[in-house]
Amino acid sequence: MSSSPSKPRIIVICGATGIGKTAVGIELAELFDGEIVSADSMQIYRHMDIGTAKPTPVEVARIPHHMIDIIIPDEDYDAVQFSKQARKRTAELVNRGLTPFVVGGTGLYIKALLHGLFESLPVDPEIRARLRRDAQKRGGPYLFERLQKVDPETAGRLHPNDSYRIIRALETIESGGQSITALHQVHQFEDDPFRVLKIGLQMDRTKLYARIDRRVDLMIEAGLVDEVQGLLNSGYDGGLKSMQSIGYRHVVQFLEEKLSWDECVRTLQRDTRRFAKRQFTWFGADKQIHWFEPDQLSDMAGLIADFLKPKPAEPEMNIDY
Fold first, then answer.
1. Within 13 Å, how many C-alpha atoms sit on residue 75's CB side?
2. Distance CA 112, CA 190 (A)
3. What is the edge-to-edge ordering of all strands in the sheet holding 289-292?
4. Which domains does the chain have, with CATH numbers?
5. pLDDT tens digits for 273-307?
6. 317 in Cβ contact with 6 (< 8 Å)
7. Global confidence as pTM
8. Diameter of the chain by CA atoms?
9. Using an 8 Å Cβ cutoff, are 130 and 103 in contact?
10. 189 — alpha (psi -120 to 50), left (phi > 0) or beta?
């Protein structure tokens, strides 16, 4: 019989945007004395609330949420940093006797938390500055075409206007001679410090897409345009990584009179639906995920209860990351 400490158990609630992850996560965390660690690459930003669909103050009062509002919109942040901070927060919850519920739709953040990521190689600042000049002079699509030639797999995961990530991928190649895809393959995500139960939320695509369109309408009614204008007025450039995300870049283009209002709303809804489709593809490849409709709470709760049930000879443990 092994006397080594058991791995801490955590629950992952994942799925496409707009499918109801926050509501499900709160209900389940209440049942199992848990708190939520957000795995959303946009909810990390302060001052960006409506377009990121952050939990409301009422929801946060019900269940504490972590890894939300941790940086300002012009700070650099990546999955490696997320992995370190989220693991530390997860350890704190476990050591307090709470159940961590990792809730979100950013697949890479979830993978980084569960399995770690390689440390980024140092980047030559001159290479970064040159690539940024190229982006300003020739536009993001020019750099995107370059990335498609040297690292098509990474390019396939990015939007052609996502200048921040495109530059990051190109500078990684030019500085170290290896693509981000190759570095991922070498790393293999072999770090495995947790026992994990993964629950994915699914529903009919037509129903989800209708929910997404309605969600966009509700964001607009809640003041999305004023939120984006306020960010611009505060000095946050429309070309920032955070401001190039879905919703924010569309409104920026409207405010800069590059899109009509009708086209802004239409493309925002379309791009959100396309994003949801990419999330389905990402999570659909994970054979460890147990899939449920969002209203199947009792079934999810039964699975979680069995997962959390103490096993014989498992000592209690404290963890530290």
1. 13
2. 10
3. 65-66, 34-38, 99-104, 9-15, 195-201, 289-292
4. 9-117+189-308 (3.40.50.300), 125-186 (1.10.20.140)
5. 999 999 999 999 999 999 999 999 999 999 999 99
6. yes
7. 0.78
8. 69
9. no
10. left
